[in-house]
Amino acid sequence: MTSDLASIRHFVSYSGVKLPLKLNTPLEDADLRHRITFYRAYYNAAEQMTKVEKVVYGEIESFHDYRYHADGSLSEATVVMVAEEESTLMRFSPDGSLLSSETSALES
Length: 108
What we know:
By secondary structure, the chain is an all-beta fold. Helices cover about 0% and strands about 60% of the residues. The chain has one domain (about 5-105): Lipocalin, CATH 2.40.128.
């Protein structure tokens, strides 16, 4: 996680396939205890999402870590699937095109 964490917000779902995920339907903290599944998003001071976790029955099922270019465009996305024990690192150019994608097993 980043040292410039500014806020944490929760959402019901996301839409689209582009990264970073576009989260929908904000949840209040009081609503979380009634949810089986939700997304927890971490934002920096620039309001960029730096991490998002999919929480199911109180456990993190998957998460994404995001890094950005100086111009604010997505630079790297790391997608971790906990149950599958794998991680995919994707690197992007400032224009948004995918430069590389590498999947590997999680280290124990």
